[in-house]
Amino acid sequence: MEFVSPEGLRLDGRRPMEMRQLRAELGAVSRADGSAIFEMGNTKVIAAVYGPREVQHRGQQLNDKALIRCEYTMANFSTGDRMRRPKGDRRSTEISLVIRQTMEACIMTHLMPHSQIDIFVQVLQADGGTRSACINAATLALADAGIPMCDLVTSCSAGYLNTTPLLDLNYVEDSAGGPDVTVGILPKLDKVTLLQMDAKLPMDIFENVMQLATEGCKAVANYIREVLMENTKQLENRRGV
Amino acid sequence: MAAKAGAAPATYSPSPTANKKNRPPIFTDIDWIRPDGRDFHQCRPAFLRTGAVNAASGSAYAEFGNTKVIVSIFGPRESKKAMMYSDIGRLNCNVSYTTFSTPVRGQALDNKDISSQLHKSLEGAIMLDTFPKTTVDVFALVLESGGCDLPVVISCASLALADAGIMMYDLVAAVSVSCLGKNLVIDPVSEEENYQDGSLMITCLPSRNEVTQLTITGEWSTPKIHEAMELCLDACSKLGKIMRSCLKESASTSQE
Amino acid sequence: MVGLSVGEKHFIQGGIAQDLRTDGRKRLTYRPIFVETGVIAQANGSARVKFGGTEVIASVKAELGRPSSSAPDKGKVSIFVDCSPTAAPQFEGRGGEELSMELSAALRQCLLGGKSGAGAGINLSSLSIVDGKVCWDLYIDGLVISMDGNVLDALGAAIKAALSNTGIPKVNIASASTPDEQPEVDVSDEEFLQFDTTALPVIVTLTKVGRHYIVDATSEEESQMSSAVSISVNRQGLICGLTKRGGAGLDPSVILDMISVAKHVSEQLMNKLDSEIAAAEAAMEEDS
């Protein structure tokens, strides 16, 4: 199948190095301590953060740092064909773990010992790159909740189809079976916290693709920073500062 | 008992798919005879007994026409360790159907839904604050489903709770009516339930004249709700008397 | 669970008794209602509804299926509700299942009518394509995203909005096949039929706190309730379903009074909702 036309356009009309439209909104869930909606094209996720609060199961309490928990759920209507999926299937558990580990790397957990932070991500629409969208939404929600972080983690994916590196794969490109590199970075510190790849790639091409994904992450980071700044300004205005 | 058993096969349709194509004309007319020959406002004869299961702390058996139900009560016993402290008791209800309860094997209704309805109907009648930190288990088994399963289960469960010595404000009596065309039919059999336009179920505490649960499905006008509620409440108070006399009977026989 | 002090509890109860609730509303006033339609691109119809801090999404998907043998001339509708853990941490894992089940059952009861199909808000006959062969299966999914009381009413409203937003593709039946064969159908990509929602009822939940009842209770107010009655009323003022929650018993006359209050309130809610849905639809058309 042809994923990049001779004119250099992808199936949804983007250029190979072009990202989908980003949209973010803070405070979507009124009762949560922090929440955010994050959209990457048709992929739409909600993240809600509860905490830091008392640890529910005493056995899990950590004495030197906060306990981070994460749950990833997909809405029944999120995919093209409607499915009633059981909760906690393998895929959800795996993604929950990935998100938790990524967020743990940036939250300053040592400041909040004996406490627990819950991150819940709910996928409303899945169109490829849910993993990245969830991480970006979780970052925003954590920032909204005012949880100390050493940096804003952002994530983006890139692939390699028709001998072209492609940024931010959608569902059709994702399910083509080609290599798919998901990267999560701490943009200010310039460090990689998440790196996953399916399928195989030659070493030199991998470097290119990863470079592309990292660029994508930086673009997301800029956008997230803008959204947060805008939100802070609004809060300031409301306080009359 | 014998007479009822004799009459049952004549009305009981073993293959419900045969006449399901369209509603039998009798149900749409103003006047028709009910499958078991009752009046519209006449309940099925109720047969109630306590102490059906020896191992349980209390139990009861109820038979309303073809609907046969056993309820056993266990507890109050210590709540599971994982549960949080609670200064009032917990009620755990579970309704299950035997595989042979319906004409077609294994075609029983959603029992999770019925279990939660049973819970809602009973919790208002039980003095939960008399057994803090503990749980009472209510296990209901529908041996045969012949219409009006939920009301029978509820009435039977309250009798079993009384038999187990659980403190209650009053016995819970439950009755449902079906709306078929213009007619209201009390205590419907499953055949009537399959063609009903709407149904109304009341569970009440007869001597306190208090409704613990009321469910309505289908389209109803307010006067019709009035009429149906009156019919049900009247039937509930009568059923309450039968339940009371059943308890008295069992108490007097155990004393002898 | 909402943790409230004794003072806060008295404040809520006292406010309700004096017809001035903690957020300044009267007993029979709703919080601001917000409706947005077409939020889920993959669905045939969808809507997001907010009642104050309560937020739900409903989506409608239509798929071709076979009618059941007991009702060959009717389509099928299934309603499922999920409680997202984003709404409350206790819904994590399987924690939300109990509430999800209860909400789904209540919605089915309120929207689908009696066994014979009389009084159903959704006309099942309109979903039939070929008698006994092909019909539409309508899957209605509700998702609770944020919870601040009165979830059932919000879900009812969201489903109504989602169905108003639903376009069922036009179906052409290709050539008369032999009676035993499955007929071939051609689903149109361009032509959609608007789903008729005039018969859909609205759900009004009256929460009884002390001696009074209130509509659209917040979670704080719900924690103080003795019982709540959910009544679904259609445009003709007929009752399409009723369920009761909460342990305390009610006097029959109180229930009848609640029904008449609900009928009165439902009229206002229905009009409010209809205008919100129409506005949301118009806004969506402007966008596209």
UniProtKB/TrEMBL annotation, chain A:
Q: List, alphabetically, the GO terms of the cellular component aspect.
A: cytoplasmic exosome (RNase complex); nuclear exosome (RNase complex); nucleolus
Describe the location of the Exoribonuclease phosphorolytic domain by residue ranges. Answer: 18-148, 151-216
Alphabetical UniProt keywords: Cytoplasm, Exosome
One Pfam family, please name it. Answer: RNase_PH
Q: Which InterPro entries match?
A: ExoRNase_PH_dom1, ExoRNase_PH_dom2, ExoRNase_PH_dom2_sf, PNPase/RNase_PH_dom_sf, Ribosomal_Su5_D2-typ_SF, RNase_PH
Name where it mostly resides: cytoplasm
Q: Which processes are annotated in GO (biological process)?
A: nuclear mRNA surveillance; poly(A)-dependent snoRNA 3'-end processing; rRNA catabolic process; U4 snRNA 3'-end processing
Mention one GO molecular function: RNA binding
* Superkingdom per UniProt: Eukaryota
Q: Which SUPFAM superfamilies match?
A: Ribonuclease PH domain 2-like, Ribosomal protein S5 domain 2-like
Q: Can you say where in the cell this protein is located?
A: Cytoplasm; Nucleus, Nucleolus
Indicate the family of this protein: Belongs to the RNase PH family.
The record's listing under PANTHER family reads: EXOSOME COMPLEX COMPONENT (PTHR11953), EXOSOME COMPLEX COMPONENT RRP41 (PTHR11953:SF0)
This one is known as Exosome complex component RRP41 homolog
Organism name: Deinandra increscens subsp. villosa
UniProtKB/TrEMBL annotation, chain B:
One annotated GO biological process: rRNA catabolic process
Localization annotation: Cytoplasm; Nucleus
According to its UniProt record, where is this protein mainly located?
cytoplasm
Q: Which GO terms describe its molecular function?
A: RNA binding
Residues covered by region (Disordered): 1-28
Q: Which domain of life is it from?
A: Eukaryota
Where is the sequence biased in composition, kind Low complexity? Answer: 1-18
Ranges for domain Exoribonuclease phosphorolytic: 42-166, 170-231
Q: Name one GO cellular component term.
A: nucleolus
Task: Indicate whether 4Fe-4S appears among the record's keywords.
Answer: no
Q: Name one Pfam family in it.
A: RNase_PH_C
State the UniProt keywords alphabetically.
Cytoplasm, Exosome, Nucleus, RNA-binding, rRNA processing
Stated family? Belongs to the RNase PH family.
Q: Which PANTHER family match?
A: EXOSOME COMPLEX COMPONENT, EXOSOME COMPLEX COMPONENT MTR3
User: Would you tell me the protein name for this molecule?
Assistant: Uncharacterized protein
The source organism is Deinandra increscens subsp. villosa
TrEMBL record, chain C:
Any one cellular component term from GO for this entry? nucleolus
State the superkingdom. Answer: Eukaryota
**Keyword Nucleotide-binding tagged:** no
Cellular localisation: Cytoplasm; Nucleus, Nucleolus
* UniProt GO molecular function: mRNA 3'-UTR AU-rich region binding
Q: Which UniProt keywords apply?
A: Cytoplasm, Exosome
Q: Which family does it belong to?
A: Belongs to the RNase PH family.
**Protein name as annotated:** Ribosomal RNA-processing protein 42
Q: Which organism is it from?
A: Deinandra increscens subsp. villosa
